[in-house]
Amino acid sequence: MEMVIKNKRAQEEIVGFAIIVIIVSLIIVFFLVFSLSNRDQAIEGYKEASFLQSTLQYTSSCENRADFLSVQELVASCYNKEQCGEEEACVALNQTLKGILEASWPSGSELPVKGYKMEAVSGEELVFSLSSGNVTGSYRGAQQIIPESGASIKVYFTAYY
After folding, report:
1. N or C: where does the chain have the smaller number of CB atoms within 10 Å of the terminal CB?
2. Which residues form the domain of 8?
3. Nearest partner of 62 among 76, 51, 48, 45, judged by Cα
4. What is the pTM of this model?
5. Domain count, the chain
C-alpha cells in the first residue's frame, strides 16, 4: 500500500513538472516571436529615415550664386518662391526629387513597394508633393524638419508595402 502511494505522488510531481515546462516553453516562444517582429519593424523604419536624410543632403543641379544647392536648401528656396538660375526653384526641386524617387523606390503592384509619397508642408501651406503607385494599409515613413527663417518646413516620406 505504501508503495502505491509513493508511485502516485511521483506521478503527480512529474505531471506538475511537465505543466511548468510547457508553460515556460510557451512564454519563451511568445517572447522570441515578439522580439523578432519588432526588430524587422525597426529596420524598415530606419530605411525610410535614412533615405529621407540622404535625399535632403543630395546636391542638386540648381546653381544659386555660383554654388549648387542641396535638396534641403532647394526645399527652402521653393518655399520662399526663389529662382534657380533660369527656372523656378520648385520646378528644379520636383525634377530632382522625381529622379531620385524613381531610381530609389521603384513601385508597382508586382513589386515589394506598392507606392510612395513625399511632401513638404509649412504650417498649413503645402510646399511640394510627389507620389507614385498605390496607397495601401501597410506603410512605413519618416519625417525631417527644415528650419527656415522663423518657420519650419516638415518633409514627410512614406513608402507603401
Report:
1. N
2. 2-160
3. 76
4. 0.69
5. 1
